[in-house]
């Protein structure tokens, strides 16, 4: 059986995401080839820590790669500041939710 290659964006984000995304990747990598799937992974940035470093909670590059180069994504977690921070809004609500298909997913 020929393998289908699925491109997966890995977005650890903040906090616990840095632990769960590598674990999720290992799970996908451990799937037996009898399922006919192979995975390619792309590391992407998002979250409050990314905002503090770059000024963007969800960089344009992350959105473009997800839209144009990925078949799916593993998303970890996004921290929220304890006080209002000028220019910060959650990347999940503002920019990621439109990327989630409304129809069912199938392989």
Automatic annotation (TrEMBL):
<feature type="domain" description="Isopropylmalate dehydrogenase-like">
    <location>
        <begin position="8"/>
        <end position="84"/>
    </location>
</feature>
<dbReference type="Pfam" id="PF00180">
    <property type="entry name" value="Iso_dh"/>
</dbReference>
<keyword id="KW-0520">NAD</keyword>
<keyword id="KW-0479">Metal-binding</keyword>
<dbReference type="GO" id="GO:0016491">
    <property type="term" value="F:oxidoreductase activity"/>
</dbReference>
<comment type="similarity">
    <text>Belongs to the isocitrate and isopropylmalate dehydrogenases family.</text>
</comment>
<dbReference type="InterPro" id="IPR024084">
    <property type="entry name" value="IsoPropMal-DH-like_dom"/>
</dbReference>
<keyword id="KW-0560">Oxidoreductase</keyword>
<dbReference type="InterPro" id="IPR050501">
    <property type="entry name" value="ICDH/IPMDH"/>
</dbReference>
<keyword id="KW-0464">Manganese</keyword>
<dbReference type="GO" id="GO:0046872">
    <property type="term" value="F:metal ion binding"/>
</dbReference>
<protein>
    <recommendedName>
        <fullName>Isopropylmalate dehydrogenase-like domain-containing protein</fullName>
    </recommendedName>
</protein>
């Amino acid at each position: 059986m020929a393998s289908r290659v699925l491109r997966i964006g890995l977005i650890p984000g903040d906090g616990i995401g840095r632990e769960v995304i590598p674990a999720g990747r290992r799970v996908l990598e451990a799937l037996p080839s009898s399922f006919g799937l192979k995975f390619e992974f792309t590391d992407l940035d998002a979250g409050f820590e990314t905002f503090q470093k770059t000024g963007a909670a969800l960089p344009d590059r992350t959105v473009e790669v997800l839209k144009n180069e990925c078949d799916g994504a593993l998303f970890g977690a996004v921290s929220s500041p304890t006080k209002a921070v000028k220019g910060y809004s959650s990347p999940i609500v503002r920019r990621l939710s439109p990327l989630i298909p409304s129809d069912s997913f199938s392989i």
